[in-house]
Design goal:
Strand 7 and strand 8 form a beta hairpin. The protein has 169 residues and is α+β, with helices and mostly antiparallel strands. The longest helix is centred in the N-terminal third of the chain and has 19 residues. 22% of the residues lie in helices and 35% in strands. It has five helices and twelve strands. It has a six-stranded mixed sheet. The chain has a six-stranded mixed sheet with strand order 3-7-8-6-5-4.
């Protein structure tokens, strides 16, 4: 149990160090894939990343709410981030991950994502116009050198979105 606590402390320490290295944008973004979309999160907001544990379904919830996960004795509500956006369901396989986004903000919320894509440097991205109907939590977009379009997820705005917090069917 002490090793797990130490691992969490190490991850938090590493995230703090990476986010605080001189230029805030230097490798300060975490890239994830949700469905066919690429997303960026500030490393300080990204939270812990865990392999997909067993999920317990919850009746009478919205179709994008995939259940509750027990992570080291704490319960997390899990939303399929792709389905929440009205897109295809995330396959629950070995590459799927849970991104524990709410812990820093006092909320045990997790996003089910297709896979992790690693750290990104904002200096290597070109800002582009966002879609006109983009929600407040996706108000920035970029392209990379390979032409991929990335959306920036504002975790605080997502957690404040009434549509995300209302899971009742």
């Amino acid at each position: 149990m002490a090793k797990r606590g130490s691992l969490r402390e190490f991850q938090a320490h590493l995230a703090t160090r990476l986010a605080g290295v001189g230029d805030k944008s230097a490798a300060g973004l975490l890239g994830v894939q949700a469905g066919n979309d690429f997303w960026l999160l500030d490393l300080t907001d990204s939270g812990e990343i865990v392999p997909l544990p067993p999920l317990t379904s919850v009746p009478l919830t919205k179709h994008w709410f995939v259940g509750i996960a027990n992570i080291r004795g704490s319960l997390y509500s899990v939303a399929d981030f792709s389905v929440f956006q009205g897109k295809e369901a995330t396959p629950q396989n070995a590459s799927s991950r849970l991104l524990l986004v709410g812990t820093r903000h006092g909320n045990n919320a997790a996003l089910l994502v297709t896979r992790m894509l690693g750290l990104r440097n904002e200096d290597n991205l070109t800002p582009v116009a966002v879609e006109p109907d983009a929600p407040a939590w996706a108000a920035r977009a970029f392209t990379d050198s390979e032409g991929r379009r990335w959306k920036k997820l504002d975790v605080r705005a997502l957690l404040a979105d009434e549509g995300f917090m209302d899971i009742c069917a």
